[in-house]
Amino acid sequence: SCTMSLSEAEVQSARGAWEKIFVDAEDNGTAVLVRMFTEHPDTKSYFTHFKGMDSAEEMKQSDQVRGHGKKVFSAINDMVQHLDNSEAFLGIVTPLGKKHATQLKIDPKNFRIICDIILQLMEEKFGGDCKASFEKVTNEICTHLNNIYKEEGW
């Protein structure tokens, strides 16, 4: 059973919405990161190898930006596959949150920024319904990540 606040129908429509954007995981993941680095330049400070890149064009071409974009999308994809199994979902979110909190020391507000940009991109590409059906998922992800950060003393 699911301890998350998503009904079975919501899980299904969230998966349908996510599938549309995950088909082009690398390009869309890259687009999300490029937008984050451009609109929130302070987020670049966590990525030493992205620091010198100022133009969006340069970032789009970067193998490192592309690789990390794909990584972010793959992690979310794993979470989306386990929305109906909170134990498995937390099994993915928890180590990810711990790593970002303790090793990488990433400010947790950046997760919300990334999620909001993903929602924007969904709306631009596939419309408001697509965005709406994925919004609860991003809230779940951010809530769980924030809880892990609290446990780690943030």
Automatic annotation (TrEMBL):
Family: Belongs to the globin family.
EC numbers: 1.15.1.1
Organism expressing this protein natively: Cinclus mexicanus (American dipper)
Gene: Cygb1
Top enzyme class: oxidoreductase
Reaction(s) catalysed by this chain's protein: H2O2 + AH2 = A + 2 H2O; Fe(II)-heme b-[protein] + nitric oxide + O2 = Fe(III)-heme b-[protein] + nitrate; 2 superoxide + 2 H(+) = H2O2 + O2; Fe(III)-heme b-[protein] + nitric oxide + H2O = Fe(II)-heme b-[protein] + nitrite + 2 H(+)
Name of the featured protein: superoxide dismutase
Physiological role: Involved in oxygen transport from the lung to the various peripheral tissues.
Superkingdom field: Eukaryota
An annotated Gene Ontology molecular function: superoxide dismutase activity
Keyword annotations of the record: Heme, Iron, Metal-binding, Oxygen transport, Transport
Domain Globin: 5-150
